[in-house]
């Protein structure tokens, strides 16, 4: 049986963070960095790249993954529903772009972009009563690196 261990070890992580709604994205980023640190990541092997918005995250993530410099990429952002269809375009574009980037590169690219109906829900998911989804994304990245190493026979 293959199960991912939650020890970051020598894994290299790239984080892509959206500046749009950055007052919440910064909390997700803090949660992700804290989780990486707590699980033994070498923080010198962690790179954070900021981009304009969640819609742009997949391209940055794909470039980072394709560079060969990272074992996993963690994507962080916040999309809050408004009164227009724009929410669906951004949320769907980000999610499908991240999925495609992971499949194209073979590198785990974790979806840590939260989508909510309200600012209050976003705040809840960035470190208050609903936990920190950035931290959860970092833990998923750690686990995926280990699972893939085992699948590839490298560990």
Element layout with pairings:
Elements: E1 13-18, H1 22-38, E2 46-51, H2 57-66, E3 72-80, H3 86-105, E4 109-116, H4 119-124, H5 133-151
Parallel strand pairs: 1-2, 1-3, 3-4
Helix pairs in contact: 1-5, 2-3
Task: Characterise the protein shown here.
- It contains 5 helices and 4 strands, in the order βαβαβαβαα.
- It has one domain (13-144): Rossmann fold.
- The protein is an alpha/beta fold and 155 residues long.
- Helix 2 packs parallel to helix 3 (86-105).
- 46% of the residues are buried.
- The protein has a 4-stranded parallel sheet with strand order 2-1-3-4, with helices on both faces.
Task: Provide a quick synopsis of the model.
The chain is α/β, with parallel strands linked by helices and 155 residues long. It is 46% helix and 19% strand.
Search tags:
155 residues; alpha/beta; Rossmann fold; 4 strands; globular
* Count of alpha/pi helices: 5
Q: Total domains, how many?
A: 1
The name CATH uses for the topology is Rossmann fold
What is the CATH architecture descriptor? 3-Layer(aba) Sandwich
Mean of residue pLDDT values: 96
| Helix content range | 40-55%
Shape: globular
H-E string: EHEHEHEHH
| Strands in their spatial order, largest beta sheet | 2-1-3-4
Largest sheet: 4 strands, parallel
Q: Determine the structural class based on helices, strands and strand pairing.
A: alpha/beta
C-alpha end-to-end distance: 13 Å
Question: How much is the radius of gyration in Å?
Answer: 15 Å
